[in-house]
Design goal:
Layout lengths: L1 E5 L3 H11 L4 E6 L14 E3 L6 H7 L5 E4 L6 H7 L4 E2 L3 H7 L2 H10 L7 E4 L2 H11 L3 E5 L9 E4 L2 H7 L9 E5 L5 E9 L5 E3 L3 E6 L2 E7 L6 H18 L3 E10 L2 E8 L17 H9 L12 E8 L5 H4 L4 E5 L9 E9 L2 H15 L7
Parallel strand pairs: 1-2, 1-4, 2-3, 4-5
Antiparallel strand pairs: 6-9, 7-8, 7-9, 10-11, 10-12, 10-14, 12-13, 13-16, 14-15, 16-18, 17-18
Helix pairs in contact: 1-9, 3-4
């Protein structure tokens, strides 16, 4: 099959590499000015422009059988137009909801899924009212385009609020979230095929630094049957609501075994990269399987697996010679805080995995050194 991917970053790269192994061929949609370094050589790249009709874009992409995305911030009208010509998976509606924090949290609440308390704001008075309602600390995030700690503010006191409020005229619509006193951050990677077959990966335990994911460990430690069932129920409720096709990533706050959804990603996700080297069908493989209506592959690793992000770092050659380390490089230029690759590791037990991730982190990020 021919598969088109909206976006040209590392997730598109890894999707295409997984799909090539299954005999599929790829083309890519780039926004004007978007770097195509990650996908060079993997298929034709079409730069989208406003005067292009859906039919023209479909032809330029090589008449794909299905269009998917590597990011949620894509043109919904483009997806809707292309859906007249081929399968769009996930759907344009799922993308529309997930690219806006306000719409996403409103949907979650309507489905009976717990989130942090939140308010939508678009001016200084509504910001003050929202922060007054949720209390301090309050977390202020742009409804769109905020990721990896960007376009986000933590307000610890009234002084921080008074500093931000005058800027509201120059800021996009925001969501104000109340603090959630969680024990840890988890995530679940779920996949659903065109025929409705569902595959779930085990919960991953994630650790962030400066608002960016640094490590993931699988399976998460000490997950009770009740917590696992809650995560499974959340995933099935969302997949069924949208008749979802593809991989859906669900970021969760764990409060003593009770889960709240932090964010959704209608795509493959950084916290699922461990699956590339853990003896299972990777999240990339299962996304391609899902959108081509192929039975999903195995999702339960036989060992403990972990991932460490390379954030503006190039690993030393000696580090890569260890037999338990796998490098995935994105062919991007290196700059501060930028995700340029990741390392996957496996271990026979949890303590050994934690120790190995700590060693790698210490080698790449010396204590006290900023990202």
């Amino acid at each position: 099959m021919r598969i088109a991917i909206a976006g040209c970053g590392q997730l598109a790269r890894m999707l295409a590499i997984a799909g090539w192994e299954m005999g599929h061929h790829f083309s890519f949609i780039a926004d004007p000015g978007e770097s195509t370094d990650c996908v060079n050589g993997l298929g034709p790249v079409v730069v989208r422009h406003d005067n292009q009709t859906p039919a023209d874009l479909y032809e330029a992409l090589g008449y794909p059988d299905v269009l998917t995305v590597e990011k949620e911030h894509v043109s919904v009208p483009m997806l809707e137009g292309l859906s007249d010509h081929c399968l769009v998976a996930p759907s344009a509606e799922a993308i529309r909801i997930c690219q806006h924090r306000g719409r996403e949290k409103t949907l979650l609440q309507s489905l009976g899924i717990e989130t942090a308390p939140f308010h939508l704001v678009d001016d200084a008075p509504s910001l003050v009212d929202a922060v007054t309602a949720v209390g301090y600390p309050a977390f202020v995030k742009s409804c769109e385009q905020g990721y990896d700690g960007q376009n986000q503010w933590r307000l610890r006191d009234s002084a921080a609020l008074e500093a931000l409020a005058p800027q509201m005229h120059a800021l996009p619509p925001l969501v104000v979230e109340g603090a959630v006193h969680f024990d840890r951050e988890l995530s679940m990677i779920a996949a659903r095929s065109v025929s409705g077959e569902v595959a779930l990966y085990p919960l991953a335990e994630n650790r962030h630094r400066e608002g960016i994911l640094l490590t993931s460990e699988v399976p998460a430690a000490e997950v009770s049957a009740e917590t696992e069932a809650q995560a499974t129920q959340i995933a099935h409720r969302l997949l069924e609501h949208w008749s979802y096709v593809g991989v859906l990533s669900i970021e969760l706050f764990d409060e003593g075994g009770s889960l709240r959804v932090n964010e959704l990603a209608p795509r493959v996700h950084n916290s699922g990269h461990w699956s590339q080297d853990a003896g299972v069908a990777s999240q990339f493989s299962n996304h391609i399987r899902a959108i081509t209506d192929t039975r999903p592959g195995a999702t339960q690793p036989s060992c403990y697996a972990g991932m460490l992000n390379l954030l503006g770092r190039t690993p030393d050659t000696a580090l890569l010679q260890a037999d338990d380390v796998s490098l995935h490089w994105y062919t991007k230029s290196v700059r501060s805080r930028r995700k340029v690759g990741h390392l996957n590791v496996q271990a026979p037990d949890r303590e050994q995995l934690k120790k190995r991730l700590s060693e790698l982190e210490a080698a790449l990020y010396p204590e006290g050194e900023p990202l």
